[in-house]
Structure formats: C-alpha cells, structure tokens
Amino acid sequence: MIITLADGGRYAANTQPERTKEALKLIGDTSRTSLAEMRRMLGVLREQTDEPNLSPQPGIADLDPLCRHVRATGPRVEYRSGGELDALDAGVQLATYRIVQEALTNTLKHAGPHTRIHLAVRVDGTRLRITVRDCGPPAGDPPQPATGEGHGLVGMRERAALFGGTLTAGPHGDHGFEVHAVLPYGQARSA
C-alpha cells in the first residue's frame, strides 16, 4: 500500500499537486500502522514478558476510511455494504479488511490511478461476500506492468480458507479485474 501511495503521490505531483500532500499524509499513516502491527507480531514471536499492545485490529468499520485513502490517490471507489456486518467476529472482520486492502492495492498497482473500483461487502443468506472489481486502466493508459511476484492473491486465498471460504480472481470485462471471496457465514461467526 505504501509503495502504491508513493507512486500515486508522484503522479499527482505532476497533474494534481494538491493531492500530493494527502498522499504523503496517507503514506505516514499507513507506515505507522504497519510498523505497529509488525512490532506486535515480533513481540508475540519473541514471547516478551511485557504487556502486549492490545490496540484493536482493523475491521468492517475501517473500510470507509480505507476507501477514502484510496480515493485520495486518484481512483473513483464506490463502496456498498449490506447485512449484519457488525455482528461478524473480529477475526472475520480483520480477514475481510485485509482481503479488501490487498485487492485495492493490487488495483492501484495494475490498473493505475484513473480506474473505477466497485467494492461490495455483504451478508447474503448464509455467506459473507466480498467483491472488488475494477474497470482497468482507461483507454490510452497502458496497464501497469507487474513488478515481481507478490503474495497478494495467495495471501487473500489463505485468509478466506481460514474461515472455510474461497477466493477467486481474474479478468472481468474487456480490461478489468475482479476479486471475489465467499466466507460461509455460520463458520465465519464461530471461527
């Protein structure tokens, strides 16, 4: 996410200088959050005797601010939610947030700052459905080349599988890409 924000800020400096400040602020915020998460993880791995940092992990309520951060880098993001999302346990909410975060990061990386993104998170019967779909780069903007093999899709699939779910990802329409995760609601609630 930080690299994507930096790239977006660099682009904005040339076309929309006012967005550069927002991108730098988001880089700082994202860096601090990531560093705090890494410290918590290292603390657990070291089995420290100190009190652990018990600050809350991101969840469903944090998707709105995440979408605002992504919008600040250029793309239009439409977010819709439905169902009893607040009733999901913290683990499922964290998995949902991380799946969405990674999918949005990939969209920015590959479709660029001029794309449109449709995000939907909803409880549908007995399933939690997460869909992140972009329209690809606009005509005239070449797709962004892959910068190496990442673990984004693998990580998203693993997060979904932890709750008995599945994740599919692939081309959508002429130029777009879609990530779709389905988590069984009953298993998700008891996980």
Strand order of the largest sheet: 1-2-3-5-4
Q: Count of DSSP helices?
A: 6
The strand count comes to 5
The figure for the number of domains is 2
Per the principal axes of the C-alpha atoms, what is the gross shape? Answer: globular
Helix content: 40-55%
Query: What's the architecture of the largest domain in CATH terms?
Result: 2-Layer Sandwich
Strand content: 15-25%
Q: Assign the CATH topology of the largest domain.
A: Heat Shock Protein 90
User: Uncertain regions: pLDDT < 50 for 5+ in a row?
Assistant: 187-191
Helix/strand class: alpha+beta
CATH superfamily of the largest domain: Histidine kinase-like ATPase, C-terminal domain
Assembly type of the shown chains?
A: single chain
Question: How widely separated are the two ends?
Answer: 28 Å
Radius of gyration: 17 Å
- Main sheet overview: 5 strands, mixed
Average pLDDT number: 83
By CATH reckoning, the class of the largest domain would read Alpha Beta
